[in-house]
Design a protein that fits this description.
By secondary structure, the protein is an alpha/beta fold. It has 3 domains: 139 residues, Rossmann fold, CATH 3.40.50.300; 70 residues, Helicase, Ruva Protein, domain 3 (Orthogonal Bundle); 126 residues, Up-down Bundle (Zinc Finger, Delta Prime, domain 3), CATH 1.20.272.10. 58% of the residues lie in helices and 8% in strands. It has 17 helices and 5 strands. Strand 2, helix 4 and strand 3 form a beta-alpha-beta unit. Helix 5 runs parallel beside helix 6. The longest helix is centred in the last third of the chain and has 23 residues. The radius of gyration is 27 Å and the shape is elongated.
Amino acid sequence: MSYQKIVNNIKKNEINSLYLLYGEEVYLMEETVDKLTKQLVSPEFESLNLMGFDGKDISVEGIIDACETLPFMAEKKLVLIKNFEGFQGKKKILSEEDEETLINYFGKIPDTTCLVFYGVTSIDSRRKIVKAITKYGEGVNFEKLKENELSQWISKEISNYGKKINQKELSFLVTHLDYFGKNASQTLLDITNEIKKIVYYMGEELKVEISHIEKVSVFKFQNDIFKLLDAVGQRNIQETLKRLNHLLEDGEVIIRLMVTLSNQIKNILSTKLLLEEGYNPKMIATKIGIHPYVASKCAEQSKHYTLKQLKNLLNHFLEMDYMIKTGKINDRIALELLMMEMCRVTSSHERV
């Protein structure tokens, strides 16, 4: 069963007696548990009709006892078991006897009870207890959203704050998020926090603009770095130093800037090499473990350099780092000289 299907079933009050909720998107999982709770349990009788347990602290007998208790002034009671490890295959958490007892009970859960196991990110689908869940109840895998699903989800979240986001701004936000791919670092919880920052920054304004996203989002620093490198690619020393000064005035640490720029040069070099082998930016993102947007920017910026120039720039960064650490040059002067050197090499027509 999908996340969307269980949400629709809850809205229609078509609720099973047994669920196993698992997967990467813990935020959606918790949200679904909250929807189940609101649908089944009235606030005035919550202490009687809602029972929650940590899966590490409750026995099989305790689970069964909780399910057998009748609800008070309601059709169903809700029993929540969080982080129960019996569905994973790492080690034998349950004895064979306890596992059989629980499996046998799954087919006998009263219609007056909704038993929900949730919280684990992965399960072993080969285990008998997991197969029993799908036989007597529903297993719901909370996978990461696809791009169109994420766009719809973000749009809805923003509308919940009384704001609106158009397709252009929505695409800009989604493109810059680090949500997709095996090395992605963000979850929906992170994106929720990004949305809150954007909305609070907007104040009374109703329509989300790209400027709102750029000002407060988690990728602002990265975006500023790209703009700095774009100025370098245009051989515009004045604009390059202006953008560098803006970063420093915003409180960015010089050493962090140097490390970030050096890493970006490495990414550009790797990208250029892979482009020559026939890889496209999407494939490059997966191969070297960077965000697809970063890969596309690296592909664009690689046009300004030869392979030899990129390798020489990396050596310059190492030399300047050594000179700063040994006190031979001021760190700000070193960074400015590096920026001017980058502008200089992009204006050269040197060939490998």
